[in-house]
Amino acid sequence: MSTCQEPLIIRYMKSLSVGEFKAQLSDLLEEVQQGETIEVLYGKNRKPVARLVPIKGEKRKKKRKLGAWEGKVKVEFAPNFKMTDEELLDLR
After folding, report:
1. What is the number of structural domains in the chain?
2. Structural domain that includes position 18
3. What is d(CA 92, CA 87) in angstroms, rounded to the nearest whole number?
4. Does any domain span residue 9?
5. Under DSSP, is residue 24 helix (H, G, I), strand (E, B) or coil?
6. Pairing of strands 47-52, 38-42
7. What single-letter DSSP state applies at residue 49?
8. CB-based contacts of 9: which residues, under 8 Å, 6+ apart?
9. What is the average pLDDT across 53-74?
10. 1 falls within a domain
11. Where are the alpha helices (DSSP H) in 1-92?
12. pLDDT(65) > 70
């Protein structure tokens, strides 16, 4: 296994259905205030229709690190990689 010169920072966007978005709105607003971006999915195909983003100039949260793998691995996604956060993290 080769090591990276600089650790790779992975950021992901939370994606929620309209129902989940409505049910969690207060909590989601807190996350947005901390710098997160929230994507709203709609319809049978769960297509993204909206994003809730922090207002420009607001303080952004620190980037997430790879933890124990920091500086030891490199993660790259193909340009055509498409997967919801839930699919990636298997949270369903």
Report:
1. 1
2. 14-89
3. 7
4. no
5. coil
6. antiparallel
7. E
8. 63, 64, 65
9. 70
10. no
11. 18-23, 25-33, 85-89
12. no
